[in-house]
Design goal:
This protein is of the alpha/beta class. It folds into two domains: 218 residues, Rossmann fold (3-Layer(aba) Sandwich); 36 residues, no CATH class. 31% of the residues lie in helices and 16% in strands. Strands 4-3-2-5-6-7-9 form a seven-stranded parallel β-sheet, covered by helices on one side. The chain has a three-stranded mixed β-sheet with strand order 8-1-10. Helix 5 links the parallel strand 5 and strand 6. The protein is elongated and about 70 Å long.
Length: 274
């Protein structure tokens, strides 16, 4: 399983975050700056022609990541519009410190009034991994406007509105072109309705040590095409069905045979002999 991607629930990632702060002595604001920097590096590499971006920031730490990215983009000479999501500015550190640094750099924060500026790329920093309910009506309107802009979106950690554990979409969700997941891959980015919203998913460890799956057992593993290459070796042209194993599928009452049929078809497609 070493080559498969370990997936984690939100509470497991929070525990990793706390360990980095409490045991490894990394300040919370430093982790936030690493997240914002990783997102900024990805944005300018992915959209090198962009020069004007919009950053939608929520009141929590996800919004703080957005303020860090916005500051770095402004310092690089880009035009940056920061839009505060309905719900207010950050009230606690480290997000409050990130907002203060953005303002100290000359940036300002626009309130969402139903309209959005025309930009090259949107950064979604509204909600992070803690959301399990539908967005409020006001935030839903902001998400609708971002989606309606038809501009590419970089989502920080998870697309806002998506349940990071189940991939459930309880309400309106940001349609991301790329989602940058911090510290570890969240299982909800690969399950449920997530694939309709998260686009290409990338993971950044924020310069933390590699995950030890013995210390942090995953909630699930993602099996990718590359993980199967050793199991599905090339066949000889004259191979016989008796040389490639037998599978017996049992199950399914009358009218309930869908699962066993899927199992049999999967076995056939992956090369079982009989």
């Amino acid at each position: 399983m070493a080559d498969m991607l370990p997936l984690y629930r939100a509470d497991q990632v929070r525990a990793m975050d706390r360990r980095a702060i409490e045991q490894w002595g990394i300040p919370a604001y430093e982790l936030m700056c690493r997240a914002g920097t990783a997102a900024w590096d990805l944005l300018r590499a992915q959209w090198p022609q962009a020069r004007c971006i919009g950053v939608a920031c929520g009141p929590g730490n996800n919004g703080g990541d957005g303020y860090v990215l916005a500051r770095l983009a402004r310092e690089a000479g880009w035009i940056v519009h920061v839009v505060s999501a309905p719900g207010g500015h950050p009230r606690r550190d480290p997000a409050r410190a990130a907002l203060a640094a953005w303002r100290a750099a000359g940036g300002r924060v626009e309130s969402f009034d139903g309209m959005l500026p025309d930009v090259d790329v949107w950064v979604d920093a509204i909600y992070g991994i803690g959301l399990t309910r539908p967005p409020s009506d006001a935030v839903r309107a902001l998400i609708e406007r971002i989606n309606a802009s038809r501009r590419p979106v970089l989502a920080l950690d998870v697309p806002s509105g998506l349940d990071a554990d189940r991939g459930h979409a309880p309400g309106m969700v940001v349609n991301a072109r790329i989602t940058l997941s911090f510290i570890a891959a969240k299982q909800g980015l690969y399950t449920g309705a997530a694939r309709d919203f998260d686009g290409e998913v990338r993971v950044d460890r924020l310069d933390l040590p590699p995950i030890d799956t013995d210390q942090d057992p995953p909630s699930a593993w993602l099996v990718r095409d590359s993980d199967l290459s050793g199991w599905l070796a090339p066949r000889h042209a004259n191979a016989h069905k008796g040389e490639h194993g037998h599978v017996l599928c049992i199950g399914g009452e009358v009218g309930m045979g869908g699962a066993v049929r899927l199992c049999a078809e999967a076995a056939l497609r992956t090369g079982v002999g009989l």
